[in-house]
């Protein structure tokens, strides 16, 4: 597989990514223990239930900061996201296809 | 050498199926086309669609181009074009285009034939004659380089970008390496990933066309003052874990593989035979997008789905590939390749090899799960007046 599997729980697709994708339904409190986490971290606690296929932050992401997956920017954090928290439409938004932000739009 | 046995056509191309296509020119002729095909046996398929009898000229031209392209697909050994008789789309013009590829073709008009019952009866005789002609096609061994492979995704989730799309992309790379053609499309799903694709274009003019296509799709959202969020990723994609269009796009482009992009062509335009990776500018709606590639000449489609799709096509066999272990299990009778093993550690290359072997085996005649179940959706992407007015005429 491309990327690194983190303790059979999630997959980190590129070293520079700030989120990993769950490859199992993860329960709150589960500890993901691996040296493949970015930074000096060797464990990451899942902060809330995260469904298969959904993303969790592998490091803190501040509001307004880019969210990275596949080594690319996939959106912007709308609030501060702590490590182990679920990252989805409630706290990450697209930068593209935003007709609502286009000049002259209501 | 990687080979399969197919149906050699008069013009030298090779079909992987030997079908007779019944092509209605409008929604008004679609039910009759369906009836004619239903009476003709398993090798006869109809392409019912929703286009009206009157369309603005560019939209009508697109309908004609798609139907002619479908009739010219090498999987078609004979075609019957059915009209009500009041359509803007011209049955004779479509038939002429199909005949130009040396494919046997006939036309029927419901009004001239004396109504629906008479047309169904006449259609049956015509289809029988076309089946006889199609049966004369020589079955011979062909090289993988003669394959045109279309790739599509639908019902995507997070596993699509991690497992199924990279595996199909690897199969595309293998086919291109063998001298064949692969085509990927769905321009709205390039948004946020176009910078990566742009770097892979063979020259500046291809690069410009690619960026222009993406900008045109994105500008539809701008023009309408709408936010793509909520529609892209779709609510289903979001449930599957995809958060933004950029994330969906970065996963989606993996299905085209890693080879250079040699060309960017319009919806339903002819795909080249014998070489390389080509982008077709299609909508994200999967049924319409598949039809565009089949009209362009794709003989086989691979369709990746995380959440589970059942769709097929009347002309080209559709291979289903899923990267989601739950879908692989729950919808096993609709899936052809289980790519979810990537999540257990099988390499993308190994799964890509399985997809490639499936492609060759399907080209050789093995029926896909969609074929076995008679799944054969068909829809033509209609140019909308808003697009026509605001964006110029993309035909």
UniProtKB/TrEMBL annotation, chain A:
GO MF assignments: lyase activity
Transmembrane domains' residue ranges: none
Any Pfam family the entry gives: SAF
Domain SAF, first and last residues per copy: 17-93
Keywords for the protein's UniProt record, in alphabetical order: Lyase, Plasmid
Top-level taxon of origin: Archaea
A GO BP entry: D-galacturonate catabolic process
Gene3D superfamilies reported for this sequence: 2.30.130.110
PANTHER family reported for this sequence: ALTRONATE DEHYDRATASE, ALTRONATE/GALACTARATE DEHYDRATASE
Entry protein name: SAF domain protein
Source species taxonomy: Archaea, Methanobacteriati, Methanobacteriota, Stenosarchaea group, Halobacteria
From TrEMBL, chain B:
A molecular-function term among this protein's GO annotations: altronate dehydratase activity
Region Disordered, residue ranges: 40-60
Enzyme kind, highest EC tier: lyase
EC number assigned by the record: 4.2.1.7
Pfam families: GD_AH_C (PF20629), GD_AH_second (PF04295)
Signal peptide region: none
Domain D-galactarate/Altronate dehydratase C-terminal: 144-382
Keywords associated with the record: Lyase, Plasmid
Gene Ontology biological process terms in this record: D-galacturonate catabolic process
D-galactarate/Altronate dehydratase second domain segment(s): 6-134
Family as reported in the entry's similarity comment: Belongs to the UxaA family.
Record-given protein name: Altronate dehydratase
Species the sequence originates in: Haloterrigena turkmenica (strain ATCC 51198 / DSM 5511 / JCM 9101 / NCIMB 13204 / VKM B-1734 / 4k)
